[in-house]
Write a structure and sequence with these properties.
The chain is an alpha+beta fold. 24% of the residues lie in helices and 45% in strands. It is built from four helices and seven strands; from the N terminus they run ααββαββββαβ.
Length: 123
């Protein structure tokens, strides 16, 4: 979350295993129409460029976290501040699985596009 907040793409990518997978959101979306996920650092880097880099900044509000085994599910809201003063709140469950080396093997974000887009507002 800190790397995303600071716009530190290389630091964020370094948190993932070489064969890591990002599904954000899980299922078909405008970021991943075929719902295959973004596999490997090159694809995860391209996901950053398509999704994360579009926002001017992010704020994370984590209401609760549940750790079990090598996974953690965070329940919360990610607020994206977009160019032109728009902002969008994405409520969801964000599940991370790490390997024995501490690197992220998978990140799966469960959120609904329509629900997030319904929060879009200009301030």
């Amino acid at each position: 979350m800190e790397a995303v907040t600071r716009g530190a793409k290389d630091e964020w990518l370094a948190l993932f295993a070489e064969d890591g997978v990002v599904e954000d959101p899980v299922g078909p979306s405008f970021f991943d129409p075929e719902a295959r996920g973004h596999h490997g650092r090159e694809a995860i880097s391209a996901f950053w460029d398509k999704a994360i880099a579009l926002a001017e900044r992010f704020e994370f509000t984590i209401a609760d976290s549940f750790a079990a085994g090598d996974e953690c599910a965070n329940v919360g809201t990610i607020t994206a501040f977009l160019p032109g003063g728009a902002r969008v709140d994405t409520e969801g469950v964000f599940v991370y699985r790490v390997g024995p080396d501490g690197l992220i093997r998978s990140m799966r974000a469960f959120w609904e596009t329509e629900r997030a887009m319904a929060t879009m507002r200009t301030e």
